[in-house]
Structure formats: C-alpha cells, structure tokens
C-alpha cells in the first residue's frame, strides 16, 4: 500500500525543487534533512539549497544551453529560479546570486508551505513507508550511501573543487579594473586582475609547484577529477598556456592602464548583493590554505587579498544511472523510488534542480495514478534525463546542459549564435506543446 504522502530525502537544490513540485499539487511531503545536527564536509550553514562551489547559475541568454535549461525550468514553475531572480548580483551575461540570500529565500519558501513537514534527522536507509525521492547530493552520508550502493549494485565517484572568496576592500584598485568581457553587462560586473608575461610566468611556476592539501577524508586510491571543476593547479600541469587559454584567458578585455589586452587575467565575480566579497572565477583548488594565500597573492591585484573562504576539494558520488534509472528518474528496481540531483550524474546547480523538478512532478503523478513524464528529446531537460539513463553509455560520467545532447537541427546554421537560437526556438515550441497536451492539470 502506498501512503498518501511522499518522502523527499535531502533539502539541497534538487530536494527543495522536488518538495515544492509535490506540495504545490496538494500532496503532503515529509522532507528529511540532516542539518543542523550533521553537515557534509562541503556545507557550512543550516539553510536549505546551500550553494557550495560557486554563486553562478551560468548563462542567462536562451541561445545558450545553460540559458535554455533555465527557460524550460521557468515554464515548469521552478521555485529555485523564482528565488534566484530576487537576489541576483551583477555577472555580465550570467545569472549569479547572493548565495546567503538565495538559500534563505529557498528555506523560507519551503518552510512556509503548509503541507511540507520538515524532519531534521539523518536518513540512514532508503525509506519504504511511502513513495520516496532521494536527493541527498554528491556527498550523501556514509550510511545512506552504503544502502544506495547495496540496492543499486555499485556507485561511481569523482572529485569536485570550490574556488576561494576574497573581500572587495582587499583587492588592489591600482592593479585591477572593472569590466565585463566584450563589455557585456553593466561594465563593472567583474573585477579583472591582469598579469603581464613576466608576472604570469612566476605565478605559473609557483602554482604547479605548490603544496596540495591531503584528501584524507576520502578514498583516494583512484580519484577521478571532473573536468568542469578541475582544480586550477591540476589544469596548469597540462601546459604553461593551458590556464592562459582557460580561466585566465584575457580575450575580450582591455587593460585601461596600457590600452591593450593583458597577457593573462583572473576575473573576480561579485559574491553577494552588497559587493563586499568576490569569487575567484575558475580558480577551484586543493592547495593548502597558506599556499593559496601565497600563490594567489602573486597576482598583483591580490597581493594583499583577505580570504573569506579558501578553496576546498571534496568527493562527489553518483550512481550508474544508465544501468539503474529510468528517464523519469524512477529506479528500475523499485517503481515507488525516485532519485534526483547530482547523485544521478547530472552536473551543475540548475541541472540538479531540473532533475529534482522532474522527479518531484513524477513522484506526484505516480501517487495520483497518472503516467509519469519524460520531456521531449529536443528540450534540454528531456535530453539531459535521456542521456543519463541511456544504456548505450558505457563509461558514464557527470553531464551538464549542452546542445550536443539535443537532436540535430534540420536546417543547421553555421553561425553559433544563430544555431543556439534555433535550438532554443525548437525547444520552446516543443515544451509549450508538451505542457498543453500532457501537463494540463486543471
């Protein structure tokens, strides 16, 4: 017998989105969250939907894969995007948020819903009393992780990293300048920290030779590092120019002191609404804390930088979704069990939230006796869920939003921007038709 409530385990981005989608359909939710009694190694506050690695939710424009994903989520009434819109900070063409305000808004919204009961305790085994959504994230607690692994017949893992944050007042104004790349945004969305050739070569030499923090909290026999969050020091080892053409690329920038493009440049993105803290964009790291201060201090604009938070590295765990999940995020081995978030192998804040959104809708539909849904393959949400559950994928690794996941266009433009608009237009029409035909719940 299926009880008339649904369990959601985990109040991160995916869990909160799932709980909201279920509760708004009039179904009681029991939301389990182990905070404040216990926190993962990467979390610091008692709030829900805590952003760990970065405060950026990626590009806004719908002609980008990340922007299209967010537009689809808006059409499906995403709670997280409504909260994000209320606490945006300037970030050029990206949607970045004040992470503390964002978490507070999500927490307040979830707590204010009458049919969501919040249970502050650690869940050590997969619940069997009701339909359940597991959304415990990439740092699922050891006991529950062991139960998931037992049920799913194994798990995978990779290592993720977060970038440091510095105070705005400690950034040297004489050796930095405010500008968005290609002058996108309001002109001062980013603080740029330029380096000339000599400064860059010294920085590079010290970076690749710096001492790294031990990963003694995790099993590091054969760690896999996810490309999208690769530590800057690991990336630098690939070659002297690798980071100069990556996170430190100077393209689209002009140093007003010289009138020319810098040899290399670190960009700092506003971390909070007040503009008192800035994030080192692309500088995820596992260097020891004193080494971060020493090496990053070789960048002229950061010579006296005050670090609010140092970068950290942590293990992310995900299940082998192509073997164990259906495209509606339900488990193949148990039809009243759903998974959501980075535990499924979707990579990125909004990707995680989108999976929670769909898992929540489908759990609700399941309880109501309706057919569960997988969005069309030409939508970003639909393509992503199909990819992570594609049995032909043999070497499964986390995947974020990408136009490469979508079916080919019939009249594909050679112009990248126009091509993005074509993908977006097709997806927009497809999703509108799907919502009208399949999701009209009135």
List keywords for this structure.
single chain, 442 residues, alpha+beta, FAD/NAD(P)-binding domain, Elongation Factor Tu (Ef-tu), domain 3, six-stranded mixed beta sheet, six-stranded antiparallel beta sheet, 17 strands
Q: Could you characterize the architecture of this molecule?
A:
- By secondary structure, the protein is an alpha+beta fold.
- It folds into 2 domains: 6-155 and 319-438, FAD/NAD(P)-binding domain; 165-315, Elongation Factor Tu (Ef-tu), domain 3, CATH 2.40.30.
- It is built from 12 helices and 17 strands.
- It has helices at residues 13-23, 65-75, 79-85, 99-111, 142-152, 197-209, 232-236, 289-296, 321-324, 349-368, 380-388, 416-438, and strands at 6-9, 29-32, 56-59, 88-89, 94-97, 116-119, 131-134, 156-161, 165-167, 177-178, 190-195, 264-270, 277-280, 307-309, 313-318, 330-331, 334-339.
- Strands 6-2-1-7-17-16 form a 6-stranded mixed sheet, covered by helices on one side.
- α2 (65-75) runs parallel beside α10, α2 (65-75) packs parallel to α12 (416-438) and α3 (79-85) crosses α4 (99-111).
- The longest helix has 23 residues, at 416-438.
């Amino acid at each position: 017998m299926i009880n008339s409530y649904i369990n959601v385990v985990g109040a991160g981005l995916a869990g909160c989105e799932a709980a909201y989608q279920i509760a708004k359909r009039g179904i009681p939710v029991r939301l389990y969250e182990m905070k404040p009694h216990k926190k993962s190694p990467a979390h610091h506050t008692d709030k829900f939907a805590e952003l760990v690695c970065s405060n950026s939710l990626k590009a806004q424009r719908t002609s980008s894969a990340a922007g299209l994903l967010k537009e689809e989520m808006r059409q499906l009434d995403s709670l997280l995007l409504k909260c994000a819109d209320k606490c945006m900070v300037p970030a050029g063409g990206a949607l970045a948020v004040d992470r503390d305000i964002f978490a507070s808004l999500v927490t307040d919204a979830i707590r204010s819903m009458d049919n969501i009961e919040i249970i502050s305790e650690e869940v050590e085994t997969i619940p069997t009393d009701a339909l359940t959504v597991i959304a415990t994230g990439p740092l699922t607690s050891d006991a529950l992780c062991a139960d998931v692994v037992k049920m799913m017949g194994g798990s995978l893992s990779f290592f993720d990293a977060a970038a440091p944050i510095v105070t705005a007042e400690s950034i040297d104004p004489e050796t930095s300048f405010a500008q968005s790349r290609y002058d996108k945004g309001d002109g001062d969305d980013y603080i740029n920290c330029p380096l000339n050739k000599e400064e860059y070569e010294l920085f590079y030499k010290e970076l690749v030779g710096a001492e790294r923090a031990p990963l003694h909290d995790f099993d590091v026999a054969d760690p896999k590092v996810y490309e999208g969050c690769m530590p800057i020091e690991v990336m630098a080892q690939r070659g002297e120019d690798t980071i100069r053409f990556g996170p430190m690329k100077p393209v689209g920038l002009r140093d007003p002191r010289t009138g020319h493009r810098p040899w290399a440049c670190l960009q700092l993105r506003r971390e909070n609404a007040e503009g008192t803290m800035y994030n080192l964009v692309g500088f995820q790291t596992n260097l020891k804390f004193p080494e971060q201060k020493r090496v990053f201090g070789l960048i002229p604009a950061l010579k006296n930088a005050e670090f609010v938070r140092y970068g950290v590295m942590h293990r992310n765990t995900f299940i082998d979704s192509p073997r164990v999940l259906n495209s509606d995020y339900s488990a193949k081995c148990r039809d009243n069990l759903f998974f959501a978030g980075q535990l499924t192998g979707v990579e990125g804040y909004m990707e995680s939230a989108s999976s929670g959104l769909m898992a929540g809708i489908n759990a609700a539909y399941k309880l109501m006796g309706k057919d569960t849904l997988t969005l069309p393959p030409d939508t970003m949400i639909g393509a992503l869920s199909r990819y992570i559950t594609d049995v032909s994928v043999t070497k499964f690794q986390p995947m974020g939003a990408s136009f490469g996941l979508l079916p080919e266009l019939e009249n594909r433009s050679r112009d990248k921007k126009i091509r993005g608009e074509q993908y977006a237009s097709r997806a927009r029409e497809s999703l509108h038709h799907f919502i009208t035909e399949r999701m009209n719940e009135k």
